[in-house]
Specification:
Layout: H1 6-12, E1 13-14, E2 21-22, H2 46-57, H3 60-69, H4 76-104, H5 108-111, H6 113-116, H7 122-154, E3 168-169, E4 172-173, H8 174-192, H9 195-224, H10 241-258, H11 260-264, H12 267-270, H13 276-308, H14 321-326, H15 331-353, H16 355-364, H17 371-384, H18 387-391, H19 394-406, H20 408-422, E5 427-428, H21 449-468, H22 471-474, H23 477-495, H24 498-501, E6 517-518
Antiparallel strand pairs: 1-2, 3-4, 5-6
């Protein structure tokens, strides 16, 4: 990103908890605040990006997800190959989506103005924000269970307050509410202090969680014996032939789908990257290297845990790390483990489900909703949806989250096709904040009709699969949506009459200065 002139910096530098930004006099208030404007200085190194991904992977949900891949019924080497292919794909896709935000120094919802228009960008912003609210609530609830189990270890008399029938409200027990509110407040405190505090938090917690995880795995392996550690967690006969191949393909798709949320709004974090090279380096260490190591660590822990602590009441291997450490007879190890996974979930919730809606909701009404306010709207919304009821109802969580998730693919496909194929990696930064007719991203009164139609067309197929398809087909909804959305957008921008796309009837001819145009080379 080019450096603003000294005069511009003096006149328009604005401090924000999301980072110090530069606002030029021509930026329209309805599109601008100090949180959304281009950063004055980008400071994050590759390690900060690496720590971001460590925090994103380390969670109760990530632990269960990684363990479930080894229970698909295919051999360990097939799982590892699927993991490698899937996470390398995520790495490449993250590099693609990171570039425009890193170059312009703006968050994800502002970047989407390039394709959707300065007003139409609220469509992808609101969709991503709603998904984050739902997952924020669920992740908070899952981590809050750890505090309940921890409290019962020290104060067994509290057990009666865990009875939802006797001491329950809106489907959650009094003990459950205490844990949920505690998690909610802790996350809000970290978030409220801004991106610099969040950066320090994930920089420390990412490695710290790993240290405890390695110690926990070592303890369980020592107790179980290496002979009792298996990389195959499936029950019954292993799959062979074509059935094993289709399961491998499904595993690859599941890995990409699992990261689809943070991958879409990764620009919220890549905007802070010092250079695009630093971002790519952080992605490499944080995705292929980190996720593979994490997955191997998980399967060793779960497998050894099955020998040391046994199975659940139904005879199934326990993959939830909170319940694994809760059953360890060593109180110190159990307490340390429970607290670690609670802290890890705070990390992923903040980076994946707090920061995103903060920017997304702020983008809807910049003059009324700041980054902090947007985040707190998401936090309050996460309580109102009563995520424990959503999580404990398989049908509700399937149709709600999978339907919302099916729209992520088209949004991603449109963003990538527009930046790399349609706009040829050019961004006129000042026009991102202008409502004047004839500007690069004005389209039709601030809306690009091609992008809106592409989202609708690209969402129909995956949503139909969610509603009427099989579980196997549902694992490919992201790919379906991304492909259809990208194709529909490219065809529309290529062949639709200019009078349909632009109010002026002509494609805007930008005459940018060296300060407000970014024409990057391919790195």
């Amino acid at each position: 990103m080019s450096e603003p002139t000294a005069e511009t910096v003096t006149a328009t530098a604005h401090h924000s908890v999301a980072g110090e930004s530069v606002i030029k006099p021509g930026y329209h208030p309805s599109l601008t605040n100090s949180d959304l404007a281009p950063l004055r200085e980008q400071k994050w190194t590759w390690y900060n990006i690496f720590a971001f991904w460590m925090s994103d992977v380390h969670s109760v949900g990530g632990y269960v997800f990684a363990g479930s891949l080894f229970a698909l019924g295919i051999s360990a080497w097939q799982v590892l190959v699927a993991l490698l292919i899937g996470i390398v794909a995520v790495n490449l896709l993250c590099n693609l989506v990171a570039k425009p935000s890193q170059l312009a120094g703006v968050p994800y919802p502002v970047t989407t103005r390039v394709a959707f228009g300065v007003k139409g960008a609220n469509i992808p912003a609101i969709i991503r924000g709603l998904i984050a609210v739902a997952w924020y609530g669920i992740q908070t609830y899952l981590a809050s269970v750890a505090f309940g189990l921890l409290a019962l270890k020290f104060w067994p008399s509290l057990e009666k307050y865990g009875d939802v029938d006797q001491y329950g409200f809106l489907g959650l027990s009094l003990l459950g509410w205490a844990g949920f509110i505690l998690m909610w407040v802790l996350q809000a405190l970290v978030f409220w202090n801004g991106m610099e505090t969040i950066r320090r938090f994930i920089d420390f917690c990412g490695p710290a969680v790993y240290v405890v995880m390695v110690v926990l795995a070592g303890y369980l392996i020592y107790r179980a014996g290496w002979d009792n550690v298996s990389f195959d967690l499936s029950a019954g006969e292993p799959l062979t032939g074509w059935a094993s191949v289709t399961s491998m393909i499904s595993a690859i798709a599941l890995v990409v789908s699992y990261f689809s949320g943070p991958m879409l709004n990764f620009g919220d974090f890549s905007r802070y990257g010092r250079t695009f090279g630093e971002v790519k380096k952080g992605n490499f260490w944080g995705l292929p290297v980190n996720f593979l190591f994490f997955s191997i660590l998980v399967v060793c822990t779960v497998s050894a845990g099955a020998t040391v602590i046994g199975t659940d009441d139904d005879g199934n291997i326990i993959t939830d790390p909170v319940h694994i450490v809760d059953r360890i007879d060593n109180t110190t190890a159990a307490v340390l483990g429970v607290l670690t996974f609670a802290i890890a979930t705070i990390g992923i919730n903040i980076v994946a489900n707090f920061v995103s809606p903060a920017f997304d909701f702020s983008n809807v009404a910049p003059t009324k909703i700041s980054w902090r306010t947007g985040g707190m709207i998401a936090a309050v919304g996460s309580v109102l949806i009563t995520p424990w009821n959503l999580f404990n109802n398989p049908d509700a969580i399937h149709y709600t989250l999978d339907t919302l998730g099916a729209v992520i693919g088209p949004l991603f496909g449109i963003l990538i096709v527009d930046f790399y194929l349609v706009k040829r990696q050019k961004i006129v930064v000042d026009d991102l904040f202008s409502t004047d007719p004839g500007k690069t991203y004005s389209y039709r009164n601030g809306w690009n009709p091609v992008a809106v139609i592409a989202v609708i067309v690209g969402s129909v197929v995956p949503i139909c699969v969610v509603v009427w398809g099989t579980a196997y087909q549902a694992s490919f909804t992201w790919f379906m949506g991304a492909a259809v959305g990208a194709a529909a957008y490219w065809l529309g921008m290529r062949f639709a009459p200019t009078g349909f796309v632009y109010a002026t009837g002509e494609v805007p001819t930008a005459t940018p200065t060296a300060d407000d145009t970014l024409e990057p080379t391919i790195a």
